[in-house]
From TrEMBL, chain A:
Keyword GTP-binding: no
Chain's gene name: potA
EC category name: translocase
Family affiliation: Belongs to the ABC transporter superfamily. Spermidine/putrescine importer (TC 3.A.1.11.1) family.
Gene3D superfamilies membership: 2.40.50.100, P-loop containing nucleotide triphosphate hydrolases
Organism this protein belongs to: Albidovulum denitrificans
Function field: Part of the ABC transporter complex PotABCD involved in spermidine/putrescine import. Responsible for energy coupling to the transport system.
Protein name: Spermidine/putrescine import ATP-binding protein PotA
Pfam family name, one: ABC_tran
UniProtKB/TrEMBL annotation, chain B:
One annotated Gene Ontology cellular component of this protein: plasma membrane
Listed name of the protein: Putative spermidine/putrescine transport system permease protein
Protein source organism: Albidovulum denitrificans
Membrane topology according to the record: Multi-pass membrane protein
GO biological process: transmembrane transport
Similarity comment: family membership: Belongs to the binding-protein-dependent transport system permease family. CysTW subfamily.
Length: 368, 522
């Protein structure tokens, strides 16, 4: 489906037909091909059990690939033990050594690299300052809050200046506000230092806001590898469309395909125009995907060429910045529309019959 | 700002001090908690703490000399134990009465055994004197009945000594008679006025009438026929008893300075003697001295108990650590099977396990047979692996191993694998990752296991006794020996107390070095 994308030829990290099985019966990772350019921030996104963490562990060296090659800077690393790979890693539970102070934790990778004392202290200080934790060097990890521990774990993974940093759901244990702040902080650091980052998460917002590229994993395969905007706007299959952001699905059969327009006959008989993405010929079943914010309820604002459908309001939820309205459209009770809380926006009442519309280009015919 | 600048204790909403208010709120809970533990607490207090306290007290308690020979102990205060002379007549006079009473009460053998711990030979002196001492009393009895046969009548004695004047007129007799009367009453078979008199009362009477002139007024105030009998006896020209001469005739052990020094040294009600003994010292007339090297046994045993227990603990760490690590890192199903193997010894009798080691380790045993069969050892040179320290260390390590593995396992279980992974990802070799990151976090388990193993080992009895021979036994053997065979409970208590103190000291040292907070059982 997807091989190398951005970054051109100079792939820094490469997975070449990598497979992984734990029990010799089922494959957890099925034929993974992925290349990551130097300086890229790549996120592996997927539900739990999709193989994303296994991929990360294979890259770090804690799991061995059953088949295939993993290359780092052109060198095959399958048989290099983790401590010789020089890859920084941030763990889900931070894994700060509880019997060492923060400064000792940071000095650890420098110590095992046999750096001199003054150089060590200098680097530790710089790393602590980098995450704004300069005053905490003498504390024990247990005396720090979750967010502070997270920063220290980050500083420790960066202090020995690795070219590649892996992060395994590092923000999972933080509360929402702190998480958003740390997301920003991590991307800032990654870009400032120019390091290549592989980030694993199951949180799609995190993936979209932080990454240069997102690899969506499911069932041991990469379903789509693309920059966040492309991933959101142009999902290549219905799994990605469902998994990333909110999505409305209408099921039907392809009637005909004319260039970049596919005519789909919905299950209730309505005909709509879509953009064919994952369909090739007439008669195929398809799922049509439309993002909730691309649906217009205000007739006056409809773009020319927009397609309209009748709908019944089932539920209206006020969410502050937006209104979320659940509609019945073409037999689907879970059709959601999001509208901006604008002064001229009407608040709809349940039971109301309205007309909604969207541009055929926003409506993607995907695999069933 | 103003409302928080308040002097004195914090107050609750109703104005009572917050502490008091809190205590009241928690009182019910506390009482309930106390009630819940009460059955166990009482059980432990009655069956465990109190006997232990009693045993500890026995290690210093020494009332027996003072109780058995009260007059002698007082008289001995004027005697110089560092001199060359045995005590004079006054002490022997006191001893005469004390000893005859003790012999009648059959306490002299107990005292003999007690003093025999300190100076061997005293017991036989006491026994033989016990058989002969009443001759002195009987001689005195003959003297008095020769003067007036009425002296023989217990009823007359009962009459005279019922009077309070008797105490003033005839003080020694009064006390000797009191001891007699008490003994007869305690026996409960006869009336005091009809029981056969102890000869010692005549000895005491003779002393009263000859060693000092009795108070005439007090004698006159005695109930009849007291004054008449006493005056008649006084008029008969009595000769005082030569107690020293008499005792030396019964047993010349009494002429030995050493015996008197021992009695004098152990006359206070509390003694350090048991402890000195337990540390291979003795109390001599020249103060505290180490025993001659050939008699030193306990220090060597204490030392052996300590170093062997430490060796056993170290062996347990070496053998248990990898197993615990494996247990903590295997899949749950495999770990459970392994855990059963670890726990299996707990379900087998200690004696069976120890006996099994005897079978395995003896010269004609399984291991030697195997070594001979493999040609590693020639048949003539079978290894001696039992009835020595090696045997004790092997068997004890096997028996105590689960006590090391379990705490280690429960601590290791709490160390997430991500720590070692993190260390490796930071560039540490597997060994550095283990030594710098994993090992420090498993120390609490080592601490708990070591304390458990060491304390169990230091007091172990059965296994060293069965497989240790003479070279591999612990101090516990001598504690058991003194409790059940030599019946020197004081010494056994002192040995036990020293052992307890050693454990507490090590515990303290451990706390200082490792920190007792670093001990976790899970």
């Amino acid at each position: 489906m997807t091989d190398a994308t951005t970054g051109g030829d100079a792939a820094f990290v490469e997975f070449d037909h990598v497979q992984k099985s734990y029990d010799g019966e089922t494959l957890v990772v099925k034929d993974l091909n992925l290349s990551i350019a130097k300086g890229e921030f790549l996120t592996m996104l997927g539900p739990s059990g999709s193989g994303k963490t296994t991929c990360l562990m294979m890259l770090a060296g804690f799991e061995t690939a059953t088949h295939g090659e993993i290359r780092l800077a052109g060198r095959e690393i399958n048989n290099i033990p983790p401590h010789k790979r020089g890859i920084g890693m941030v763990f889900q539970n931070y894994a700060l050594f509880p019997h060492m102070t923060v400064a000792e934790n940071l000095a650890f990778p420098l110590e095992v690299r046999k750096l001199g004392k003054s150089e060590r202290e200098q680097k530790v200080k710089r790393a602590l300052d980098m995450v704004q934790m300069g005053a905490f060097g003498g504390r024990r990890p247990a005396q720090l809050s979750g967010g502070q521990q997270q920063r220290i774990a980050l500083a420790r993974a960066l202090v020995f200046e690795p070219e590649l940093v892996l992060m395994d759901e590092p923000l999972g244990a933080l509360d929402k506000q702190l998480r958003e702040h740390m997301q920003f902080e991590i991307t800032r650091l990654a870009h400032e230092l120019g390091i290549t980052t592989v980030y694993v998460t199951h949180d799609q917002t995190e993936a979209l806001t932080m990454s240069d590229n997102v690899a969506v994993f499911d069932d041991g395969r990469i379903q789509q590898l693309a920059p966040p905007a492309v991933l959101y706007e142009e999902p290549e299959n219905s799994f990605v469309a469902q998994f990333i952001g909110e999505n409305n699905t209408l099921e039907g059969v392809v009637q005909e395909i004319k260039g970049d327009i596919a005519v789909v006959k919905l299950d209730d008989g309505e005909l709509i125009d879509c953009k064919p993405v994952n369909v090739s010929k007439a008669g195929e079943r398809t799922r049509v995907s439309i993002r909730p914010e691309r649906v217009e309820t205000n007739k006056a604002r409809l773009q020319p060429g927009a397609h309209t459908l009748k709908a019944e309001v089932l539920e209206f939820i006020y969410m502050g910045d937006i209104y979320r309205t659940r509609l019945r459209v073409a037999g689907n009770d879970d059709f959601v529309v999001k509208t901006r809380n604008a002064p001229d926006q009407k608040r709809m009442q349940p039971g109301e019959q309205i007309e909604i519309g969207w541009l055929p280009s926003d409506c993607r015919a995907l695999d069933a | 700002m103003s409302d928080i600048t308040q002097d004195g204790p914090m107050l609750a909403a109703d104005g009572t001090p917050l502490k008091k208010s809190l205590a009241r709120a928690l009182r019910r809970q506390k009482i309930r908690a106390l009630m819940l533990i009460a059955p166990l607490l009482i059980f432990v207090l009655v069956t465990f703490i109190a006997p232990i306290a009693d045993m500890l007290f026995r290690s210093v308690e020494n009332q027996i000399v003072r109780d058995t020979l009260p007059r002698t102990v007082v008289a001995l205060k004027d005697w110089n134990p560092d001199g060359e002379e045995i005590p004079g007549e006054a002490v022997f006079q006191a001893l005469n009465l004390d000893f005859q009473i003790a012999a009648e009460e059959k306490n002299h053998t107990k005292l003999g055994s007690r003093l025999n711990y300190e100076s061997p030979g005293i017991s036989s002196v006491f026994r033989s004197t016990g058989r002969g001492a009443d001759k002195i009393g009987k001689d005195a009895e003959k003297t008095f009945t020769g003067i007036d046969p009425r002296w023989k009548d217990p009823a007359i004695w009962a009459g005279i000594f019922a009077s309070p004047e008797a105490e003033t007129a005839l003080p020694r007799s009064a006390r000797a008679y009191e001891a007699f009367a008490k003994s007869v009453r305690a026996e409960g078979k006869k009336e005091v006025a009809k029981a056969k008199l102890w000869p010692v009362v005549f000895s005491a009477l003779l002393d009263d009438l000859t060693l000092a002139q009795p108070d005439a007024a007090a004698v006159a105030a005695l109930p009849a026929p007291g004054p008449e009998l006493v005056n008649a006896a006084l008029a008969a020209g009595l000769q005082p008893i030569d107690a020293k001469q008499a005792f030396l005739e019964i047993n010349d052990g009494w002429s030995k300075l050493d015996l008197w020094q021992t009695i004098s040294a152990y006359s206070p009600p509390y003694t350090a003697g048991y402890f000195l003994n337990a540390a291979d010292f003795e109390q001599t007339s020249h103060g505290i001295e180490a025993r001659p090297p050939s008699e030193r046994i306990y220090l060597k045993l204490f030392w052996r108990t300590l170093w062997m227990s430490m060796t056993i603990t170290a062996c347990c760490i070496l053998l248990g650590y990898p197993v615990a690590w494996l247990l903590a890192n295997l899949r749950a199903s495999t770990a459970n099977v392994l855990m059963i193997l670890v726990l299996l010894p707990f379900w087998t009798s200690l004696l069976v396990r120890t006996s099994a080691w005897k079978v395995l380790l003896q010269q004609q045993g399984v291991i030697n047979d195997l070594l001979v069969w493999m040609g590693l050892v020639s048949d003539g040179n079978r290894l001696v692996m039992i009835n020595n320290q090696f045997g004790t260390i092997i068997a004890m390590t096997h028996i105590l191993l689960p006590f090391m593995i379990l705490p280690l396992y429960s601590v290791m279980k709490t160390v997430p694998p991500s720590y070692v992974r993190a260390a490796k990802s930071l560039g540490a070799t597997p060994w550095t990752a283990f030594w710098r990151v994993y090992f420090p976090q498993s120390i609490p388990g080592i601490g708990a296991g070591s304390i458990l193993c060491f304390i169990l080992a230091i007091g172990y009895y059965i296994t060293p006794e069965l497989v240790g021979g003479t070279e591999g036994v612990f101090i516990s053997r001598y504690i058991a020996y003194h409790i059940s065979t030599s019946l020197n409970w004081g010494l056994a208590a002192a040995l036990g107390t020293i052992l307890l103190a050693a454990v507490l000291l090590l515990y303290y040292v451990y706390d200082k070095i490792v920190g007792i907070d670093n001990v976790k059982l899970g």
